[in-house]
Amino acid sequence: MSxxxxxxxxxxxxxxxxxxxxxxxxxxxxxxxxxxxxxxxNINLVTFQNLLYPxxxxxxxxxxxxxxxxxxAAEVGVGLxxxxxxxxxxxxxxxxxxxxxxx
Length: 103
What we know:
By secondary structure, the chain is mainly α. It has three helices and no strands. It has a single domain (4-97), classed as Orthogonal Bundle (Helix Hairpins), CATH 1.10.287.3510.
């Protein structure tokens, strides 16, 4: 199988994630954009693992992808807790409103 398709998909997802982080003001959409970028990295890891080591019994690229999924789940939990707390305190989840974090 040619790695061009998965690599183009990963590049497209990563570019959409970068655009989402730069252009969006909503904190939830920024978190979703970060998740899209992490999924692009997962696609790259699995693609290069299959390309470089097709007979690897340890499937190390897929193991790294599982670790990234676990880290992404923890990041979403912490990020949503911060967003909920921000909404409770300021009644807005606009990223531009949070220019200074203080008590």
